[in-house]
Structure formats: C-alpha cells, structure tokens
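Assess this one:

_____
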Amino acid sequence: MEGSTKLLSIHNISPNGLPAHEMYLELGGLNHAKQLFLFLTYYNHDVTPRLTVQKRNQHIRRRYAKGEAISDLAPEYGITPQRVFQIVKPKPRSGK
C-alpha cells in the first residue's frame, strides 16, 4: 500500500447537529498513519485552560457592563441566556 493513497473526509458535527468543520486527509504509508492518529487524538480538543466559574462570571459581568448583549455572551460561554441574566443581575440575598 506504500505507493497508493486514499482521501479521507472527516466531519466534525457541532452541538446543534450542523457540520462545523470538514477536513480531508490523504492516507498512504506509515507517515500518514501517524498523522491520522495525531489528528484523531487531538483534533477539536480545547487546549486552552478552562475558566473557573467565578472567573467566567467576572468576564461575563465585565463584558455586559461594556454593552455586550446577553444573547451574544451566552453561546460564547456555553450557557443559556437565562443563566447569563442570573449572573449579570443577581437576586439580592436576604439578610437574616
């Protein structure tokens, strides 16, 4: 199989079920097998560190205060608009 190559199409599906990415890999030989292994292992893995909930909420409050819409912030942080609303307009705690 060293001289032949095949084209492999890989589709990444977004959470809403629509194709988010499409990539084509050319297969053939050991080097391509290594590339495929690395691709399947690391493709679409988030390598940026996750924010703590407290830091995320600080970022959301800051961006909202600067005028960004709740509907724009929610998908960026992977939360619902209702949750963003709760973060930027928290209920006052009743003091006992």
Summary: Residues 29-42 form the longest helix (14 residues). The chain is about 45% helix and 20% strand.
